[in-house]
Every structure is written in structure tokens, then in C-alpha cells.
């Protein structure tokens, strides 16, 4: 009597298994309770329990003992009394111990020591290699038998590196009294087999759903078949595949694993019987897929394909989306539609985590939280992000961006109410963090505040007290990871403390907080394994450690919708299955080269080829393809790059064409519906803003520089002078060109005021000395200083030469002098104000006005056309005696000094030939402009003449220029 059975892919596995076991138990509940069922995963155990409840209508039932194969000793003592198996190291402690070995080995070799986070990534790869070696029951010592001289030089280096596993790691495990996790499972399986051999169990033992890809599990399946009441139920064994194809199976084929396990059990494929008499309801569909996945060696059989009926692909559709966003949107719509039918279930199966997250985000537009079996990385959750951000803030010594990212986090409260704390942080941001960075640390923040706001000063003092010990450790050249982690967690709890609510409750509360607390506990226990690190490396190391921790939500998710990875989907069932991300390199993933061993080395050592993973992925695809209704989706482009369809889709399409089959259902409707979700009912082209405030609200006092803005972009004057809106500087901004220009202006002002009549013996040296003092006042960043200072030194040399040429002709010099002129206008007096960079009175009594430009000065044509009226209007004020301390006089010349740095450091350009005429024309033009805007019907239009629009404006976004600007303006025509 055979002990090996199979269930075809077209039948729901756990439902069919539950029905079979219920029928076998009959009316005796103790028979069912006496069974022991081994399943591949915990999720499969839960699915089988749910299936029993569905089939019995939810009535009370004594279930069989359900055990996941990967956790045979999880919840009860060894039933056979075998020797106790040594424990495995906790996962994080294992990774950190390997990290310490990697750092020590690289330091011993005298090479460049990797950073701790880089070493942790290497250690994680080593751990995966150890898991693979253990799964195949190989001895790491065998690595030494791979003769280095037979391989390329870089493989020799790799083999030397792997001496960690052959020489050091075994002794560490022995010292700890531990073994590898994979070896632990091997020993547990061996102990279970030995116990069964000595005393075979009398109760039924059923192993269901396993492919036996791991040698130890294959041995366990073989041992179960030898038991008096043992049975093995394989998922989706293809009993119809021809013998030549069966003989030619390669590791990339979905049936390859079954061939190996049947060989290990010692039976032929024809001896495997169906578990149920029910035939596969989708036998034609599976026959089609069998042909599509036929081994390459027997593909000549495609010439003799037997036609399949048109209903073969009933229930199967394919969707090729333009990109991942559209693919995720269409999938979300399909899942949402499933809920419109009572009791219908639907699931997305994909290894693409980005696609899974997109689908989850799309479903939230309907308020649906979907169960994602892969969970979320801890570092992307709220408490995980808070831990990351608090570490970054302290490590960067309260740099503006890092500090605001942390202090604006919802968990940050600093002992105050969260709302009050956030309000203080916003005030601190506006007070000192916009613009160039303050000096480092809380001391720099305090200096920037200058005690002007006691509440903000108190906030900075509190932050210094809370973070002080943590900042000190992070600045240390060497500290133990255990100390840094402990102090960091204490700081995070203190920062999370709110008025009336302790920080630990806020930080570690809730389902996600509990997961973060478990990670924190593991970190505290595992940290001593790494030893000491430089404190500045802690934030990156923390992020790398947290990336391996996953949070899975068990509450508040929809019970009928799921996202499963291929492993979690095994044996699961749903009315609608969507197989997403079917692109080559995603599903299946690329058969990437092993970073540790070449293919010949893997073969010599005994490891399976990379294609074995593709074979397992192919089996998962096969199981999903047999669902009652299945949708195959892919994106034609990802990040703008064309993609290649999965090999399974390509082969399926080829066989379908040969058989005259095609997908009947039109799936483009899903893409169209998703597009309509965010498309407005109609498109209304916006018009440029044209506000018409009352004349009483319009400005009656503007500077000469604002007059140019008034002409080129009236809306900017409206926003600044009427709405009183001022743009904030960027946070943590480098000194911009405008700020550099202000510094140069200040240097020249101080120089002229210091030497108004006679130049010093070395004017260049004096300019550089003044410049150094001004830069020290305004520039805190060494990088900013290094960028701007060489330019200023060049400017200083040019200005000194120019001053030496000009001074003999001058009677007096006036720097940064203020003036104003009152103009009669229809709505009342209008005051024009100015602050001239420099006004020189020559010995003949005429004036020369100079405007410093560290950027590009206006052209003579722009000045003549009236679009650059600053200097002409200053001349008009000077002609009428509007500058304090400067008698009225004619202006002989209007000059621009372009202070550009480089070689030469500057150049002098005239604004026009006839300064007096330019001044009169500019004043006449201003009178006309004032009269126009004194009319209440005149709007403050945005950029009315695009060809003369300013090169920069703080109010482009407020005016929504990009929404209404014409193509000609965007193109500069």
C-alpha cells in the first residue's frame, strides 16, 4: 500500500487535505485529534486549522497536532526522549559576532578596514552561506579542500576570507555551547527519525505540502513513509509528464525537487496516487502549463502539440501595464472589486516588495488595510524611524536637517505636550535654522538665539541635558556597542516622554511598539558580541541591524484580502489569485553568481546550482496558475527601462500560439479605471493671477530695486508689500550668491569708511583683512568659506588697483548712503527710496554712481529700455539732493562694477552714455507707472511681459506660473 500521495494544483490544498482527514476520522473526534500533521510553515498550519473550521461550519472540534517542519521542537518536549540538542545563537548576536570577526580579519590583513555597517552586511552574507551549507549538510571545513591554485586570484582571496568559517567560527560556537540554526534543525530531524525507528508511533503521521528541497526534510519524508501509519502528500506532482521529460528535468524545472525526493524515498513516480478521487478541475490548463515548462531537451515535442479546447484558459487573464504604478493600481482595483461579492477572497502573490507596498498604499484610498505576509521593515515603522532619527540627530551634533527630522517626529515631546513641543520646534526652525547653519551643537543653537526667546533657549537647554550622554558617546573614538545602544534607548525614551505620559509607554506601546521593544531587547543582549566601535559609526550600524527586523500586523487588516510572498503562498488558497511582477529578474529572480564561490567551486563543494531557486519559484508559479481565477500581471517598463517578460510567460505564450489559444478577457479596462480615479472631470486651464487690491492698500513707498520688480513682475510686489509674504531661506543653506554679494558689499563699505580720503599703503592687504573679519562673522561652514574666499581675494586685488586709479580724481566718497524722493501722484504722494552702493563726488563737482554686482549686471539696452532703472533713479534722487550729506549735483557717469572673482577679479561697465537723460527718462517712466497703479482697475499681474520677466522670484510658486505659463514663455521665446 503506497504511502505517498499527491494533490493536483487545481484543487485547494488545505481544503482538500482537511476534507480527507475529516472523512478518515468519521464521527470519532478522537481519531482526528490523534493525528499529527507536519506542514511547511506556520502560516500553512493556520490555513489548515481555518479549513477545518470552514468545513465543519465552525462547530467545536479537536484538531490534529499541527507542526511546522522548520520548528519541530517549538512547543513541547521531545516526545521520544532523545538527547537534548544544543541551542542556536540568536540571529542578531550571530550577525554581530560574525561582524566582529570580519573587522578583525580585515584589520589583521593590513588592508582598509570596512565600516561596521559594511562589515555587518558582509557578516549577513556569511550567515546566509552558513545556512546554505548547513541546509545541504556540508562541513564548512570542506572549503579548505577547494585548492586555491586551481581558481582565479580573486577567488583565492575569497577562500582566504572564508577561513573565518573554517578556522574561527567553529571554536566560537563550541565556546558558546551553540550550533548553527540549520545544523540544529538537521539534528532535531535526525533525532526524530531515530526515535521513530526505535519506537514507531501508532498514530497517523502525515507530512503534507513539502517539496523536500532540503536533504534533512527529504530524509524525514522518507522516514514517514516507512512508518506504519505514515503518509506523505506532495503538492502538485505532475503525474502526466512524459518519461523523456521526467528524465531530462533540470534544477530550473518545477518538478525537479519532486524527482529528487521520490528518489530519496525510493519509489517511482507512477506509484504516487492521488489523495482524493476528485479529478483536477483544470486539467487542460495544467496540461498547457506542463507543455510550456517542458525541459529544453524535449522541446521538439512542441511540433506534435495536441490542440486544447478554447475553455482551457477560462478564468486566466493577463495584464501588461505601462509601469509599476499602473500595475499596482490595476491590482488594487481587482482586489477591491472582489469585496463586492459576499465571502469572496482575493490575494496578490509577488516577490516584488515594491509592488506589494504600492498595492497596499493604493488600497488605503478606500480605507482598506491589507494583510502583507512579508510585513514592514522595522526601520520604516514609526518607532523604528524615531530610533534612527534620534541617533542621526545626536551623531550630526544637532545639524538642522537631522534635528528637525527627529524633533518633528510624532513621538518627540521632550517632556511637554506633543502639540506644544512641535510649536516650539517650528519657532526654533524659523528663528535660527533657515539660512546658513549655526555653529555645531546645542551651544551653536544657543549662540544663534542670543537669548532673544527664553522659551526656545529653555528648549535647547532641555535637549542638551537629554542628549548629552548620548552625544558624548557618539563623539568618542571608541565605545562599546552595548553602552551606546543602552544610552541611545534611554535618550529615545526621555525624548518621547510627554506631559503626563512616560516615554517608554509612548515608544514601546502598541503592536508595532512591541516589535520595536523586542528588537531593543535583542540589541541589548547581542551588543556585547561586537565589542567596541567608533561612536560616529553607530547610526549606520543601527539602520543596518534594524533593516533585518520585520514587523507583521495581525490586527486591523481585511480578512478577505492578502498579499503573500511566494513562500507564504504555498498551500494557501483564494478565489482570485493575482500573480504580480512577472518580469525576468523579479519572478523568477536572476540566478545571480554566488559572491563567495564560482559555479565550479559550488559544484566541487556540493552546493546546488543557483538555478535550484528558480525551480522552486517555478513550482510556486505553477501552484498559483491553477487557481480558479488567476490574473498574470507585469510592468512593461520599470524606472523608464524596458523589461523582459518572465520566462514562464514567454514559454506559455509560445505554446498558446501553437495551440491556437489566447487570453479572451480584455484587461485594459483596469488600467483605464485606475487612470480615471485621479483624473478630474474636466480640465480648466488656469489663468495668470491678476489681483486688484484697493488703492488704499497699495504701497506708497518702494525702493529703486523694487521698481524694477514692479515693472517686470507686479505680482511679486503684491505678494511682498500687500500680502506681507516673505520667502524663508532654505534650511541649512550654504551661503548663496546673494549672501556672498551682501558680504562683498559690507567689506567695501567698511573699507571706504575706514579710508575715505587716502588709501592705506597696501590696500589689497587691508581689503583682505576686512574681508576675513566679515567672512568670520557670516560664514560658519568651512566648505562655504573655501568656495567663496578665493573669489573674494581676486576681487580685493582688482578693487585695490581700481581705487588707486580713481582716488586722485575724487573729492569725496560715500558708501551705502540712503536717499529718498517724494513724487506727486494721482492717489497722493509716493516716496521713492534708495540705498546707493557708492556715490563719488569728483573734484569738478559732478557725481559718479557705482553699483556693485557680484552677478551679471544689466546690459546697456536693458537700462535704456527702462527695465533696469536702479542706477538712473538713484541719479534722479542725487540730482534733487535726496541723498543725505550729498548736495544736489548732476551725475556724470553711471557705472557697474562686476566683481566676479577669477582673473581679472572684476570689470567696470557703463550703464549708458548720457546719465542725465537716463535719469530723467527713468523718473518720467516711474511717474507713469505710479499713475497706472493708482487706478484701482489696474491688476498686479504676474509676469505680464514674459520676455522681460525677472530671472528669479520668490513668488513663482505662489503665482502658480508653471500651471498657466505658455509654451513660448517656458521656451524663452
From TrEMBL:
Record flagged with keyword Repressor: no
Highest taxon listed in the record's lineage: Bacteria
InterPro entries according to UniProt: Ds_break_AddB, P-loop_NTPase, PDDEXK-like_dom_sf, PDDEXK_AddAB-type
Domain PD-(D/E)XK endonuclease-like: 701-936
An annotated Gene Ontology molecular function: helicase activity
Protein name as it appears in the record: Inactivated superfamily I helicase
Keyword Transcription on entry: no
UniProt entry keywords in alphabetical sequence: ATP-binding, Helicase, Hydrolase, Nucleotide-binding
